[in-house]
Amino acid sequence: MILLRFAAITAFFIAYLIACGPAGITPETAPESTSSKPPDLEYSIVEADQGYRLTMSQLAFKLSESGLFSEGGEISADTIRVILDSVVSDTLAGLAAWEIALGDYYEFHRQYRQRYEDALLENYFDQMVYSQIEMDSQNVVDYYQDHPDLFGMDEQVYIYHIQVTKDPMINGPDSVRYRELPVEELEAAVEKRARDIRAMINSPESFKTVAAEYSDDTTRADEGGLIGWAERGTYLKPFDSVSFALKPGEVSQPYKDSYGWHIILVEDYKEAGIPPLDSARYQRAAAHYRALQANRIGGVIMDTLLDEIDVEYNDSILDSNLYYVDVQQWVAIVNGMDTIDCNDARGPELAARRNYQVANTNAEQKKEMLQRLAQRMTIIQAARAIRIDTLAGVAEFERFLWHKYAKAIYRKAREDVDWLPDDSSVQRYYQEHAAEFRPQKPMKVQHIIVSDSLFGDFLRDQAMSGYDFLDLAEEHYPGDTLVRRKLADLGRISQRDVPEAFWKAAQQTVLGEVSHPVKTEYGYHIIKVLEREEVKSIEQVRPGIVSKLKKAHQLEVFREYRDKLYRKYHVKFTGEVVPVYLRPLTERFDTE
Asked: For residues 376 and 311, is the Cβ–Cβ distance under 8 A?
């Protein structure tokens, strides 16, 4: 189970792989940070074909760099053995991946191809378009000044606000008084409160203090009623018209709308127009200007490339539903070189259906959609024509992608994700592990011992009528009064814990009720059954059994996968696996 959990985080395995020679890594020898050198442990701990060799020194250093075992401390030898198998097999899978014929695996090859083609397109546009753009700073400034539609602002005011409503009056300490007022008088009282608040304001600073104390707009009261910058038309009239009628530093008289009474302070004002060019606005203008130039240069290139595009359509499927056609069936051939298959077309097909609002596109609609895919393919062909694919960075990325997807194909053999146990396997496990599903102590009981069965029935009647059972025990259980309650409460019991007659009586007693007196060698017992746990049925435990069987199967599959790799590359483990100490994560990295 641990093995499979670690297998899911392969990226970290290299930081885990540990086996030691004679000494191991102790708190004294553990690397203090990523800049410190690991102990001198250069002996091999794993060796295999193709020059694969792993030293203790390499692994200790990588482990110190990782974020694993963040609390630090000792990693047990058993954990290290599990990690060791996982990381060695993953490394060897990377070697084996180079033998995979990626083209034989359609879906993996398709994902590789799409990501690689995206890289070709990106590099093509970098070289043919973006590298041709001359970013003169004066051109950017001129572009900014000449485009008020893009960079201009409407006139704005910086607003603070006080709201006055009837809510605090009808819900406050004098609520009874205000609720009894006629509507007209209540409205007059609210207006008077608004005007009294306005009378307290004699400066912009005092406005904020008064707003914090008296405004009913509690979401803004803590900030002195701040609303901030607002363009004309942001708010409804009369709020908008009152705000723009005020000069900076002016406070309005109270006015009323459907939300209550309002008092507004305008602290600042900006005229409509293009604001001064600062760093942030320059960057925004430069991005706009660069995009404009890219569109101009790219448009010329695209017109040339796409002017003579040649698409051969598979007429036999243009009227069909692409979701019912084999994914690898060809749909179009672009310029006699590259094929668009059904899978490539399905995404754009779905978008076309939404656009045309149809259940399935017709032949002409499919051709229009395929033309757009063909345009992308034509640009990719142009990238290859000028040898974009031979650029060092592109070639390296292509090799990385190829290996990534080839390795994913090889690693599929380490799991059998769709496997489920059949009913007979579940039944067999249930029968062979019956003890797991039978509670060890299935009943929780209390009892009272008496010497006479008639008195026992009397106590039972009292308990059944509502008397607390342990209170009765404290009064009537034999022995020291200080321990009677404890002796009466047996807790959870099994058949082995009590006499046979006691067990049978407890089994036959209804849950929550008290038995009639039952005789044992100790006297007569009345028994109260508090809890009873039954044997779990196979249906109750089926999910847990399935989970256990799946984990066992996956572990077996992984071991077969691991052993195959170990045989293929003649793996040798050359060091004793011992516990390893790690410093806490906060102490592993430099803080400078």
From this structure: no
